[in-house]
Specification:
The protein is 0% helix and 41% strand. By secondary structure, it is mainly β. The chain has a single domain, classed as Beta Barrel (OB fold (Dihydrolipoamide Acetyltransferase, E2P)), CATH 2.40.50. The strands form 2 sheets. The chain has a 4-stranded antiparallel β-sheet, with no helix packed on it. The protein is elongated, with a radius of gyration of 21 Å.
Length: 90
Amino acid sequence: MSHVKAGGTAKNVHDSPGQRLGVKLFGGQKVKVGQVIVRQVGMTKRGGVGTKVSRNFTIHAARDGVVNFQTRKVRLFSGRSVARTEVTVV
């Protein structure tokens, strides 16, 4: 038997640090090979020319240049067209 009456359990008491997601380099900024441009969860932004998308959807620069953001129409699997942001390095 318990020697303390009705203690209960502690749930949801763990606090994890933030993942530091978001845009790291903005349009017009210079970038070198391998630098992180965007850290994201999922494909909220698409990688274009001069970029590489890693397994965790981080967009890296594949060459030296200047970062550029533009909106593009992307066709979904259902056939619907939606606007998405494309990241390029020129």
